[in-house]
Design goal:
3 strands; elongated; two-stranded antiparallel sheet; DNA-binding; homodimer; mainly alpha; 8 helices
DNA sequence: ATGTGCATGTAAATTGTTACATGATTCA
DNA sequence: TGAATCATGTAACAATTTACATGCACAT
């Protein structure tokens, strides 16, 4: 029997989370792999990271699946490949956003681990540790406030949700600070 | 020249974070590998996880370094090895708790990633996604409240900090809920 | 007698990071 | 002319998870 012609992307491809992240960033205008990395670091860095090494294979995979389309666009003699999302890509992203699968949540925080064990210290040292954890969150809050202007720009361009997730990052670390202060009496 | 007698544990051994977690849990009374796993799942699960596979090699490593001491203590015909922390282990744990090294903080949250991209959806679907993220946090809050009695027991036994970190978990997810509600007007 | 919890272990696979390498462009 | 940024790539390594495997003890 004749094999089906390879015109449409298969509907059954499974993408990993990092690939969806790359897809979403391309949709928001990150054209090159380098730009994707930069945008991740300046937006969702608080709750997702991705290393440069993972990005380029993801872009290839997405292009082969017809979810993004790329073309060479060198800057002078420096090679560069730029991408745009396709209709299929947009549909795929939306499907992922609404699918009812459980959403992974994974926190790894040495600061809280140390605090959990702080009864092993004398009172003075424990208080210092608490202060260190508090300070770390205070720095994070400041850092997140610093990127707020970028989220405002996104809002002005019609993207409301980047600002929302930024607010959540700030709220999280503020909550840590509040609990620290509360514990101190 | 004669080599130094191998009486004291070397001062230079480097432990990984999971090994310190195991050490801390043994200090709090988790005697077997199985008990360590259970205690982790019932206490610091919100900000640190460890798989059973990592625990047994950690215990061996800690024992070889003289930080814990183990003995066979079978239950009937079922073999079991139980551990206690040593003075050296206690000192090592304290040193780790106060060392000024930067404390890793790593959050991976698909829920927030999806929310970040939610402008790709129409308003109705985006609102549903927001509700899903909110609900997830509400469930977490409930779950964390459920283990509060255990933290209270720890407090009664002189360990104040487990309750503090539990409160932080609750505060974090409550912050997410508050920001969701605020965004909804 | 049967299911749940206790207790440990191995092998394979996945996933992600670090380090290194290269070179062009842009701006001060 | 030198530093920062743009842009992509490879190789080796480290960390962690999933799946599988085994068997006793205890309570219903």
């Amino acid at each position: 029997m004749p094999s089906q012609p390879d015109l449409a992307p298969p509907k059954t491809i499974e993408l990993t989370a990092p690939a969806y992240v790359v897809l979403g960033m391309v949709r928001l205008g990150a054209s090159s792999g380098y730009a994707v990395k930069r945008m991740v670091d300046r937006s969702i860095r608080f709750f997702w990271t991705i290393s440069q090494v993972q990005i380029y294979p993801s872009l290839e995979q997405l292009e082969q699946a017809g979810l993004i389309i790329g073309r060479e666009d060198p800057r002078g003699r420096r090679p560069r490949r730029v991408y745009e999302i396709t209709q299929a890509g947009d549909a795929m992203l939306q499907r992922w956003l609404v699918e009812p699968a459980p959403m992974l949540f994974e926190l790894r925080d040495i600061g809280l681990v140390k605090l959990f064990f702080a009864d092993a210290l004398d009172r003075e040292q424990a208080t210092e540790l608490l202060a260190a954890v508090r300070q770390r969150s205070a720095e994070r809050v400041a850092q997140l406030h610093r990127i707020e202007p970028e989220a405002e720009v996104a809002r002005a361009a019609g993207n409301l949700y980047p600002l929302l997730t930024l607010r959540m990052g700030i709220a999280y670390h503020q909550a840590v600070i509040d609990v620290c202060d509360d514990f101190d009496r």
